């Protein structure tokens, strides 16, 4: 019984904290912005064609997560034809306690594009969780054609 009471209180505390959440932004100068740091690493992995490490940032929607090899193949299939020659992050807008929108300029195959990437904070089972909980940031959706805009 006590465990149920503790769980209920935790749920109520989490809900209260979420209700108090105020959207905020961060820039590359921000020291403590997990979504921004994840995006920087993501762009680095893409530029170096490190497919397995890039695939680790993909949101997974199944109960059985993909293997590292499967994610590497998916990353290669999606990104191989899109060479990332440079990236510049302008800002990250945390629109909720669980998600952020990143605005960047990307040079892909020699052309500069504006990009908006949606990042979600997830646990090890890929359940979306609050950013103050233990977890990691993933990109959703994650194919380059879903976030590259041709209006730079």
Features:
single chain; 152 residues; alpha+beta; 6-stranded antiparallel sheet; globular
Helix content: 25-40%
Total of helices: 5
Q: Report the portion of residues in β strands.
A: 25-35%
Averaged pLDDT? 89
Counted beta strands: 6
Task: Give the radius of gyration.
Answer: 17 Å
Shape, principal axes of CA atoms: globular
> Structural class of the helix and strand makeup?
alpha+beta
Sequence of secondary-structure elements: HEHHHEEEEHE
What is the CA–CA distance across the termini? 58 Å
Largest sheet: 6 strands, antiparallel
Low-confidence stretches: none
Task: Please explain how this structure is put together.
- This protein is of the alpha+beta class.
- Helix content is 36%, strand content 28%.
- The protein is built from 5 helices and 6 strands; from the N terminus they run αβαααββββαβ.
- The chain has helices at 2-20, 34-47, 51-55, 68-79, 144-147, and strands at residues 24-26, 84-94, 99-108, 111-122, 136-139, 148-149.
- A hairpin with a 2-residue loop joins strand 3 and strand 4.
- It is globular, with a radius of gyration of 17 Å.
- The model has no long low-confidence stretch (mean pLDDT 89).
Question: What's a quick, concise take on this entry?
Answer:
By secondary structure, the protein is α+β, with helices and mostly antiparallel strands. It has helices at 2-20, 34-47, 51-55, 68-79, 144-147; strands at 24-26, 84-94, 99-108, 111-122, 136-139, 148-149.
